[in-house]
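Recall that a protein's primary structure is simply its ordered list of amino acids. Everything else, from secondary elements to tertiary packing, is in principle encoded there. The following example makes that idea concrete.
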Amino acid sequence: HGRHHTIMPSNVNYRANIWALKEENCSHVLVTTACGSLREEIQPGDLVIIDQFIDRTTKRHCTLYDGQSCSLSGVCHIPMSEPFCTKTREVLIEIAKKLGLQCHSKGTMITIEGPRFSSRAESLMFRSWGADVINMTTVPEVILAKEAGMSYASIAMATDYDCWKEHEEAVSVDKVLKTLKENANKATSILLTAIPQIGSMEWTDTLHTLKVSTWRSISTGDSWPGLSDMLRKEVDLKILECLETGTGYW
């Protein structure tokens, strides 16, 4: 939203942000996000290391491969069965437990267009869909990071119960900011421990898998789907060589 919260969620230049990180050879993206809770057991102040998302946005650029002259060439059909990096999530969960924080080890985030909050009918519908928490910024960031071959994980902090809960004050900006101010140190403490720990770990295989997955998801009109298994393996090895040397496609 910008330093002074002057940019609507729809107008954040997610692609520029991810591209800038890619240009700096960033390997991991750790984010924090305020969210509303759609579950009784996820109380305001709790943390959720989200593992899935539902996209309810309508006005955002969700790919780095959109066919424009200034974009990457091809169409990227990136797999999204596991949108968040499992290995990085495990690090965050482990640290949260060691710090004694109330942290839920998984959850489905539904991202709405905003900037308005949900109606009660929408909030109840999202619950029926299986969403656990709700925000306005996870999508398309998580998708773009996946396309860029980065390990992406998110620490979500519940600030309210959205507006589905009877006899509970509905979400408001004041309520969100109050809860954030009271609990921001929780996410900070996780990050201060996680960053050096991640930096000391071996990530070669994880990052190669992410980048090869992206490369193999790009359609440029060539006959990639018809390649033999043996040739696929040879190409994968060449991709890894390019990744390591900084030459070729990546």
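The beta strands are 28-37, 47-49, 52-56, 75-76, 103-104, 108-112, 133-135, 151-160, 218-219. The first strand starts at residue 28 and ends at 37.
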